[in-house]
Design goal:
Number of helices: 15
Largest sheet: 7 strands, mixed
Bound molecules: pyridoxal-5'-phosphate
Radius of gyration: 22 Å
Structural class: alpha/beta
Oligomer: single chain
Helix content: 40-55%
Order of helices and strands: HHHHEHEHEHEHEHEEHHEHEHEEHEH
Strand order of the largest sheet: 1-7-6-5-4-2-3
Shape: globular
Amino acid sequence: MTYRREEHVLIPESDLEGMSVDTLAVRAGQIRTGQLEHSDAIFPTSSFVYGSAAQAAARFGGEEPGNIYSRFTNPTVQAFESRIAAMEGGERAVATSSGMAAILATCMALLKAGDHVICSRGVFGTTNVLFQKYLAKFGVDTTFVGLTDMSQWQAAVRPETRMLFIETPTNPLCEVADMEALSGLARANDALFVVDNCFCTPVLQRPFEHGADVIIHSATKYLDGQGRCVGGVVIGPNTLMEEVYGFLRSAGPTLSPFNAWVFLEGLETLPIRMRAHCDNALELATWLEGQGAVDHVFYAGLPDHPQHELAKRQQSGFGGVLSFTVKGGREEAWAFIDATRMISITANLGDVKTTITHPATTTHGRLSPEDKVQAGITENLVRISVGIEAVEDLKTDLQRGFEALENYRQGTV
Ligand SMILES: Cc1ncc(COP(=O)(O)O)c(C=O)c1O
C-alpha cells in the first residue's frame, strides 16, 4: 500500500510500535486538528459542543467516544497521556493536577478501607505524610520498611496487604530497589506493585519491564524539565486505569490543558536532557567524593554505592539527583548552601537549572524526628538536583560552599 501523507497527517500509531523512547518522546500521542499544525495544539476550553441533544446523551452515556468536559476529557491532556503511556510501555495513562494527586488518585481508586500498604521509608516526605496521616483516616494502614531490605518487606506482609509502593532511586538518598524481587513479592500476595518513576523517567528506567503494575510520575520534575508547571500522571493497564480515571472524573484533581501542553513540549527534549543530567551528576558526585569536608556522597553511579550493580541492570543512566553529607550538622549544611551564588536554593528538582536543598528542613521537614532518623534524613544532608549547566561552572559555585565551610571551621565566620 502506498503511504499517502494527505490521508495520514499523523504517523499511524501502529507505525510507532517498537520505536525507541527518543522517537516516542517527539512523535507519540499527537492530536492534529484540521489546521494541520506541526506543533501540539492546546485546547483551553472547559466544555465541548455537540451536534444534537442525542449526541450529548450518547457522549455522557459512554456510547459515543469524544470530548465532554475538561475535568475528564481534554485533547491536549489526552495527547500528553498517550505520549507518556507510549514512552513507559503502558496501556493507558491518566494525568493529574500534581504528582501527589497522582499518588492520591491511585490509592483512592485501587484501595479500600481495611487494606494494607507497604511503603518504602525512602519516599518523598509528602508521600509519607499522605499515607501516614490522610489515608490512615480512611482505614488504609501503611507499614514503612527499608527499601533495600527484602526481609523487612516479607515480614510486613499481611493477608490484607494490597499495595507495595516505592520510589527508585529514592529522594534524596538515591537508594535503588530490586524491582523484580518486589514485584514477585507483590504478585505472590495478590498486591499491586506501584513505582514512582519520577527520578529516572522512562528514558532511564522502564519499571513495567521489571514487574511494576502501576507507574507514577510527578510531571513537575523531569517531564517538564524547566520548572514551569505542576502536574502528575498514573500509567498502567486499562482495567486499573479505568478505576483511576473514574476517581479523577468524580473527584476532579485534573491536569489543566496548558500544563499538559507544557509537559508535551518538555517530553520532546526529555531524552537529551536526561543524558546531560546524568553526565553532569556523575562528574559532580565523583568530584564531591574527593572533597575533605564531605562525609559521604549518595549517588548510584558511584562504584562503591551498595546498589551500583543493580542500578546498572535496571537503569540506563544513574539520574540527575545526588546527595551528600557535610562534616557537621545543620549549621554547616546551611552555610554550604548559602555560600553558593548561581545554583538555585529551591525544593524543586529535575530542572535544567541546578538546585540545592536541605531536605531535613524542607522536603522532609514534616517528618517526625524519629521518621527522619529512620529515613536517613540527617541535618548535615544536602541534596543537589544537577542541571545541564557546564559542570566546571557548577564546581566553581560549589567550591564557594567548601570555602565557607573552611572559614566556619576556622571560626572566621
Ligand atoms: C519522587 C517524587 N514523587 C512525587 C512528588 C510529588 O510531586 P508534586 O510536587 O508534583 O505533587 C515529588 C515531589 O517532589 C517527588 O520528588
